[in-house]
Design brief:
Helix content of chain A: over 70%
Number of domains of chain B: 3
Oligomer: heterodimer
Strand order of the largest sheet of chain B: 9-8-11-6-7-10
Helix content of chain B: 25-40%
Number of strands of chain B: 17
Order of helices and strands of chain B: HEEHEHEEEEEEEHEEHEHEEHEHE
Number of domains of chain A: 1
Strand content of chain A: under 5%
CATH superfamily of the largest domain in chain B: Nucleotide-binding domain of ferredoxin-NADP reductase (FNR) module
Distance between the termini of chain A: 7 Å
Shape of chain B: globular
Radius of gyration of chain B: 24 Å
Radius of gyration of chain A: 17 Å
Strand content of chain B: 25-35%
Structural class of chain B: alpha/beta
Distance between the termini of chain B: 50 Å
CATH architecture of the largest domain in chain B: 3-Layer(aba) Sandwich
Mean pLDDT of chain B: 89
Number of helices of chain B: 8
Number of strands of chain A: 0
Largest interface: A-B, 21 and 21 residues
Low-confidence stretches of chain B: none
Shape of chain A: globular
Mean pLDDT of chain A: 85
Structural class of chain A: mainly alpha
Largest sheet of chain B: 6 strands, antiparallel
């Protein structure tokens, strides 16, 4: 497992072990914000950015603070605090730097604090004993994978509304879950190419 | 034991570190800047940005009514923002009707000033000022309602209409870490401009009512701002039906005092609801008003009189009493003041008696 390099992990986190479609993490915003490509692109970008940055930050906190002090059991609460603080910081920076980006991402950023895909990525990288670069690759990949999955989902749903008649009982979350399942099956085709465990 | 201490210490250290980092970031990154706010197309204010519109306007001595103090939980600080507010926020949506959303009404406490704004507010808000006052008297009206008399120091006089309310500032104390504002109707006659009276009912654990009932002393300094509100007597000749309960007495009392002073001849009936005799107050004042106003009748009603009350007046819920006493309300006007439940129930009764909705005026004490 040490032999997996940065890019291999990045690739596998996006495709073979997509955090959304194989671990089913971050489902509620995945279903809630995937009606339009535009909003899902905003949310996807925000999740990507936060996942990539917080998994690196959390790796540092874990390896240099929690492990030496024998406080590994505190990882859940510490990771969440780091993520929450980082999200606030990002919100402030984006507000300062780009008004348009802030208005596009602004309402999604506070939601991200409680997106389990982000906490999940931090926990996976700890459970799998990644090195720093592996953790960085995994964070990037997991975020990218999540963004990719929600974008694909939004694309499909948007077309679905325009082009086809969904049976009444399946409108909304019903059809969304069926699509998610089908997508997960498609991603299963990549299974076994690279193992992260 | 040491392990526990280390764990707690590390957790605290991480949290404090992040908090400090965020505070530094907020101080350095936050876009403050200087922005111009155009009010009603005429007045221009130059302000420092980065904070809520409500706070910025308050600093400029424009007081927008707000009962929650800017937490987005009362929905009172509605202001029309014509330019520069950005899209509607999810925190505002529950408070705005579709019509208000169309007319660009927003919650001033949720909008951050981060560019030039153009806003529209009712002209009467310009007469809202902040007043420094001193407690001149505190007395128990009932077991849970206190009368608070405030002498105005700076500015030394206030102009308000009978039925309006002011906001009382509660300084930080045991129950609150920051100043909070709560709205109370003025119960005294508007002709007394240097002194106002409030009637405040104790609510268990209420931040302001606990402060007034348990901490406030004669001689204390109190900051208020106002006046606010559109509740008040309409200039018509119609018969008046007033209905109030508990501290809903206050605005009605102010209206009646003014009627007595100006010798208003309109027929008027005032139904006041309470549980038992110990919840009645200002009865003597009302009896005096009956003497000076020939067409005024005060009708207190008890919903659950104690056996020792020897009550011979009206009994039952206030809606039942109004139902019994009022035959035809189609030509009358109603002024209601009290809890939202009571008001809604009374509106039902008055409608059934033929009163048009446009003749019903109320002040809900939420």
């Amino acid at each position: 497992m040490q032999q997996l390099g940065f890019f291999a992990i990045l690739f596998s986190a996006v495709f073979t072990n997509n955090i959304l479609l194989t671990n089913y993490l971050g489902m509620c915003s995945f279903l809630g914000c995937s009606r339009e490509v535009k909003t899902s692109l905003g949310l996807g970008t925000a999740v990507f950015f936060v996942t990539a940055a917080t998994s690196v930050l959390n790796w540092l906190v874990y390896v240099y603070i929690l492990v030496p002090l024998d406080l590994v059991y505190l990882r859940f609460i510490v990771f969440i605090v780091v993520i929450a603080a980082f999200v606030q910081l990002v919100e402030m920076i984006i507000e300062r730097v780009s008004e348009t980006l802030y208005l596009a991402l602004g309402i999604f950023l506070p939601l991200i604090t409680v997106n389990c895909a982000i906490l999940g990525a931090s926990l996976f990288m700890v459970i799998r004993n990644y090195t720093f670069w592996q953790a960085a690759g995994y964070g990037l990949g997991a975020g990218l994978g999540w963004a990719l999955a929600i974008l694909a989902m939004a694309g499909i749903r948007q077309r679905l509304v325009q082009r086809s008649r969904v049976p009444r009982g399946l409108e909304g979350p019903g059809i969304a879950l069926i699509i998610a399942g089908t997508m997960a099956l498609a991603f299963m085709g990549f299974n076994g190419m690279v193992s992260l465990n | 034991m040491t392990e526990l201490l280390i764990a707690v210490g590390v957790l605290c250290a991480i949290n404090t570190g992040l908090a400090v980092l965020l505070m530094i970031a907020e101080a350095t990154i936050n876009r403050t800047g200087t922005w111009r706010i155009t009010v009603n197309g005429t007045k221009e204010l130059t302000v420092t940005g980065g904070r809520s519109l409500l706070a910025v306007l308050k600093e400029q001595q424009i007081f927008i009514p707000s009962a929650c103090g800017g937490r987005g939980s009362c929905g009172l600080c509605k202001v029309a923002v014509l330019e520069g507010a950005g899209p509607l926020l999810p925190t505002e949506l529950p408070w705005l009707t579709p019509e208000e959303q169309k007319t660009q009404v927003r919650l001033a406490c949720q909008i951050k000033v981060r560019r030039d704004l153009s806003i529209r507010i009712p002209e009467e808000l310009f007469s809202v000022k902040q007043y420094r006052t001193q407690v001149a008297g505190l007395s128990d009206l009932t077991h849970d309602i206190k009368r608070v008399t405030l002498t105005l120091l700076d500015p030394p006089a206030i102009t308000f209409k009978a039925g309006q309310y002011i906001q009382l500032e509660v300084p930080p104390y045991a129950l609150t870490d920051e100043p909070v504002y709560r709205a109370y109707s003025v119960s005294s006659d508007p002709c007394e401009t240097g002194r106002i009276e409030l009637e405040i009912r104790y609510v268990p654990n209420g931040i302001c009512t606990t402060y007034v009932h348990r901490h406030l002393k004669v001689g204390d300094a109190v900051t208020i701002n106002g006046p606010y509100g559109t509740f008040g007597l309409q200039p018509t000749d119609r018969e008046i039906i007033c209905i109030a309960g508990g501290s809903g007495m206050a605005p009605i009392q102010s209206i009646l005092l003014e009627m007595a002073r100006t010798g208003n001849p309109r027929p008027c009936r005032y139904f006041f609801g309470a549980r038992a005799r110990r919840d009645l107050f200002q009865t003597e004042l009302m009896r005096q008003l009956e003497k000076s106003l020939p067409n005024f009748r005060y009708i207190p009603a008890l919903s659950a009189p104690d056996p020792e009350d020897n009550w011979e007046g009206e009994t039952g819920r206030i809606t039942e009493v109004v139902d019994r006493q009022v035959q035809d309300a189609s030509q009358a006007e109603a002024y209601l003041c009290g809890s939202p439940l009571m008001i809604d129930a009374c509106i039902q009764v008055l409608r059934a008696k033929g009163m048009p909705d446009g003749n019903i005026f109320y002040d809900k004490f939420a």
